[in-house]
Amino acid sequence: MRTRADAAASARTVAFVLGTRPEIVKLAPLVRRFGAQARVLHTGQHYDHEMSAAFFEACGLRAPDVMLGTGGLPRARQIGSALGLLDEVFDDERPAAVVVQGDTNSALAGALAANAREVPLVHVEAGLRSHDRRMPEEHNRILIDHLSDVLCAPTAGNLANLIAEGIPADRCHVTGNTVVEALVAALPAPDRRAKILTDFGVEPGRFVLATIHRLENADDPDSLRLIVGHLAELAALGWPVVFPVHPRVRDALAALGPGVLGPRALGSGVPGPRVVEPEAMGLVRWALGPWRPASSGAIPSATRSSCPSPRTAP
């Protein structure tokens, strides 16, 4: 049986609802700042070790306080399942506030659960708009913004989006983006950064970091082939391309054929991008992590292509 002391303790906690790798990275600075008052509720939207637990470890966070296990479900069922489970959690232990970040299914479920229980809702990274109604994320972020009590907009432009939609100005604040703190925290020491660059054979300001994960790019074979082709062209011009590849994108590349990242796909002599595993050490580590040679005929976990060295580029 819960005591008054238990109820008082839960009323002083802040619930961070998250479920994906970017949410872990971007909310980590806030979770650390709140310390013992933070209670992390993980929906399980991303659930394997490399996409979830590894990022908690890399960000210096303890394991989630609650794991809900909604991974692998279609969007509507995932949101509905997470909403129902979060409602049970908030019924048992009502927090002082709920914090969500971005535009994921997990964030929307957290926003709806907070709204249903009349718990104040804080939206980190509010006001972003693509104005593309084909994107599920666009619907998620708009709904979250209009449910939120405190909206943390990264930029003045994001704030303008919120005001234009009729959200009261006193609920909206330009705060910057927590990804900056997350990136700074993930940066290796200067000597380590220099060694990583040397190991990769690239120089500061003389390489390209590319990532592909949006559905309209990653799940459209023609778009994906076109994008990778342009990355290979950049490499041929003397700009080495470091490409942290999401497992789903790696599978999509494999489906295009073994030559898509190299000369066989794009013409004789045209090098391809360097593909690296999206390791759990922040954006810089994803870009500059270790590589290992590819086996022929398959998309490997990590590949270094024959990108020309920037020292010999025209």
Describe what you observe in this structure.
There is one protein chain. By secondary structure, the protein is of the alpha/beta class. Helices cover 45% and strands 12% of the residues. It has helices spanning 4-11, 21-34, 53-58, 75-92, 105-116, 136-147, 156-164, 178-186, 190-200, 215-218, 221-236, 247-256, 263-266, 282-288; strands at 14-18, 38-42, 66-67, 97-101, 121-124, 150-153, 172-174, 208-209, 241-244, 274-276. Strands 3-2-1-4-5-6-7 form a seven-stranded parallel β-sheet, with helices on both faces. The chain has a three-stranded parallel β-sheet with strand order 8-9-10.
Determine the N-to-C terminus distance: 73 Å
Shape: globular
CATH domain fold name of the largest domain = Rossmann fold
What would you call the structural class? alpha/beta
Number of domains: 2
Quick one: biggest sheet? 7 strands, parallel
Give the averaged pLDDT, no decimals.
81
- DSSP, total strands: 10
Any low-confidence stretches, pLDDT <50, length ≥5? 263-271, 278-314
What is the CATH class designation of the largest domain?
A: Alpha Beta
Proportion of residues in β-strands: 5-15%
Organism: Catenulispora yoronensis
Keywords: Isomerase
Pfam families: Epimerase_2
Protein name: UDP-N-acetylglucosamine 2-epimerase domain-containing protein
